[in-house]
Design goal:
7 strands; 6 helices; alpha/beta; globular; 171 residues; seven-stranded mixed beta sheet; Rossmann fold
Length: 171
Amino acid sequence: MLKSLSEQTAHILDIGCSNNKIPGAIGIDIDPRTGADIFHDLNIYPYPIESGSFERVYAKHIIEHLNDPRSFLAEIYRILKSGGTAFIETPHFSSRVAYSEPQHKLFYSYFMFTELLKGLDFKILKQGITFYKTFRFVGIASLANQFPNTYERFWTYLFPAENVILEVQKP
């Protein structure tokens, strides 16, 4: 059994870690074949983690698999210590990865997180769209992040993105 989190020295939680857990982090995943420390269905709240336990939460390529992304973000808020930060990454809706995996339940845009964060007291530290190497070299990433509304309305299918990223802080 996992030691209580107060006995742990790790300050990082890796949600949906699979076999790529961040070194030194506590990992939580549903699959017992992974490198997770805690096995739990991520669609069931609350997670078996004390409130205010972690300084940093990573959730890379997991939110698109969940039934209720707003509850997931509220759970991250609950788990974070005051002043703690969370990093979330998910495929952008224009990425072939977004719609090529049948387990994905929702496709994300730059503005989806704005809607999902309503009612949560997170401070947005960074929000952006990432691109594959070719589009980074020609400046598409810079323009898309400077003008995300114009990019997603007019240019997204000509220059498909890779991911949407979000970094937030709990006050």
